[in-house]
Amino acid sequence: MTAWFPRISDDFVLQLLLGMTVNFQIAALALVFGLALGALFAWVRLAGGVVGGAAAAVIGLMRAAPTFVVMFFLLNIIPRDATLFGVGVAPSGIMTVALSLVPYSASYVADNGAEALKQLRAGSTLGALQFLPNVTRAFFVLVMSSSAGAAIGVTEGIAVILREAELMPALGDKLVLFAVGIVFFGVTLQAGFALMRLLQRRLGRLATRG
Amino acid sequence: MGRTRVFLLARCLPLLLSVLALPTRAETPDAALAGLIADARAEAATPGACAQPNVDRLVRIFCENRLRAGVREYYPLFGAREGQTRSGYDVDVARALAGRLGVEPVFTRVNAATRIPLLGEDRIDVVLATMGHNTQRDGQVRFIRPHYYQSETILVGPRALTVKDWPDIASRTICVTIGSGSNAQIVSHNARLMLFDEAGVLPDRLKDETCALAAQDDSFFAFYFTEPDFERRFERKFGFAQVPWGMAVARSAGTDRLARALDLASQIFHRDGVFLDIARKNRIGTGFLERQQAVWQRPTCNTDAGSRDPACVLPAFNADLQPTPFAGRVVAFEDWVEARTGIDLALPMFKTVPAWSLFKAGIANSLILVVGALAATLVFALVLGAAQSAGSPLLRWPARSLTVVLQSSPVVLTLVIAAAVAQAIFAYSSAVAIGAAAVALGLMNGSNAGQAIAEAMHTLRSEAGTRGAAAHGLFGHAISRSATQIVSFLINAAKGTPIASFIGAPELLSALTDITSFASGRATTYSMLLVFYIAVVAIVVWLCGRLRDWLERRQAS
Hints:
Order of helices and strands of chain A: HHHEEHHHHH
Strand order of the largest sheet of chain A: 1-2
Largest sheet of chain A: 2 strands, antiparallel
Number of helices of chain B: 22
Number of domains of chain B: 3
CATH class of the largest domain in chain B: Mainly Alpha
Number of strands of chain A: 2
Structural class of chain A: mainly alpha
CATH architecture of the largest domain in chain B: Orthogonal Bundle
Helix content of chain B: 55-70%
Number of strands of chain B: 13
Helix content of chain A: over 70%
Radius of gyration of chain A: 20 Å
Distance between the termini of chain B: 134 Å
Strand content of chain B: 5-15%
Largest sheet of chain B: 5 strands, mixed
Shape of chain A: flat
CATH superfamily of chain A: MetI-like
Oligomer: heterodimer
Shape of chain B: elongated
CATH superfamily of the largest domain in chain B: MetI-like
């Protein structure tokens, strides 16, 4: 390492990459749960009536629930030894973070899903297909938000960076390390957005051909 | 012969007079204990005495020829069990006590939750289970004095980490177990807590680096420091909250003589170094026991009254928290709810003065943080929006670069960077943490909103160019056009405020985590927290809706 670059652990990059896979894992879980729940709410909301109104109210509440508070709520409300039909159901740290992101992902999917269904009913396939890049966008937002797991001891990417920073006494060294973290996450995010734009263009071409 | 008598009289008379001058001569603890044992044995030997209901506990021990001791099984170095073999300091002390009484020890497994109830249910005679003697427990069991050991809470962390005293832990995260009496003290030094249900996970969390620092009894970590790998990587940073450990007997009728016998035995064990030998055999710290041996070898303490002398025995650790003036009404309300709904409601934040103060400060700080984050978001949105729309690339490109960097940084990392920079400039305080969090949230959301303003500005310029409209005053129109985006990032900023607890901002989430670390009622507490924040965000959404309407009306006009 050069003089301006801080001394970091030999396996830091490997640990960071492993940590980032946890971020992706959390985001994927949150999106899967969100898709299931959000699609259901979108369908119920479009049905209208009292049930539709209730679904809209629940979506509104989910939209307003701060992820970080939901995470601590789940962590403290579910006993460590909770069982259902004799099977342990206490979520792991990763699952707790993923579940805390579900209100966001479900409300996002419900909003965009309802819009997509409307477009589809109006005969605009391209409009409906916009749902896919929007979900991709949500996935990368979830990846970035999953860093909240560092607060409850989940060893994800940011936790790895903060762990390394704890051992650095100088602010300058820490800032260089944080910059490395931003580059790693930034490249991932920008790659994700590039993928999203590519997807949008492909869908556009498909719809035009259709 | 006559001269000899005169000589003896002259030598012995002053001694005789001095003895007669004392009202009662202090008895040695050994003699007092021997007397107690002899009396109890004689009673036990009396026909029919052992069959009496409510027989005295000491007498019953001799009737049954056994001392039932409650010990731990999973507390290395103090109470451990492998198959039928028990080991540890507490176990060996129980054996020594039984040996002194001349009976057999019989062990029963206890843990932190069962050790006092098992005494109350008369399933054990004495508990020796790493139990700290505090003022709260004084009302539940009768502690044996002098105390047989003393522990303190120690902070353990990697050797490479420079932490020497309280000032070094401000804004750091400390892993602790819920309910630990020392948590309140850690909180008072501006540290954040990461809570765990069981102490057993702390060494693993240190090893896998989830925890940079962990606080727990030195007796707990003593075992792990015997592991070469743990000892090589970690060290004791500093200790605090010394708590004397007490053996205890039940507080029911018929236990006085047993307690007295154990008091005297404990006193003798300190004086004669029995405790010290057992400690050395089990490889635990001996500093406290060495100091206690010196105390109990003093002539003033080495009497049958020594265990009642405040100059010789240690006081209980004061763990009582001052109740609020309305604590009684809160308890009555909890009972009322439980009686009518069956819900075990617990409202610890209203029952003690420290918890109530933390709770009030938490709400106030949360509201300040929300207002600060909204204001910062709006300011940064306008500044970065204007800079990104500027004609000069010297303004435009730095603003765009900053936006890309902020968009690429996860929220937790941005907060940590803001806190690190703030702490390099200012001394750590709650206000600095709140300010840093507001700025970080404002930058993150403001940069996105600013980008929306710049994009709106771009479209307006294009339209102005094509339609030939006036270019001046476009910025105001750009703000109106990007109203929906600005509002959505303002709401996002409000929703993000609880994450400020990660950098030590004492908002409500942080305050309630601190409260639940030394009180019960986690389910109620975190439910209230969720309701509070959803209500705050709902109000912000409503206010932002009004702002959006105003901006859109302005655009229309």
